[in-house]
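Batch manifest, entry 17 of 40.
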Amino acid sequence: MSTERPPERIDLPELTLRRAVEDDAANLMKAVNDSFEHLQPWMPWATEKRTVQEELAWIASCRAEWESGLGYAYLLENPDGDVVGTAALHNRIGPGVLEIGYWVHAGHTRRGHATRAAGALTGAAFGMEGVERVEIHCDVANKRSAAVPPKLGYELLVIEDDVRTAPAEEGPRMRWGITRAAWERRA
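Output type: structure tokens
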């Protein structure tokens, strides 16, 4: 059954993806700030440690994007209720295509959180009306992010010239993609 939007909450073993609310701002700020040195090389927005006010603004912008259909952001939460990252579906490529972005708390890497979140969001994307392809983009130097898409059956579509937006980036960007038909065959 197709829907207009993805679910607001996705429960996985040992990981929950859910929309952030204002009460999450302090925990999100702590997760970002605890992971600042881990995020700063790769995330253009990680230029300085965050404040609760900045996280409240991010949560408000996520709410507006959700309502307008421009994006669907989720907190990643472990069974203890700790914020262990965020992941999102972005509607910025073109009709019928969504892009997944993600980051994981430095203290929670190499536990499969990014792969499970990206897999759950891929499934959610294909549950939406009109979505025929999902992509994951990352800089060629970001080996950890690049390890996620092939685990989920994504194919490398192209390596294209891009500008550096974060300190550790080299510039060329990998675009990984999977079609609805390929996802259904995989499942």
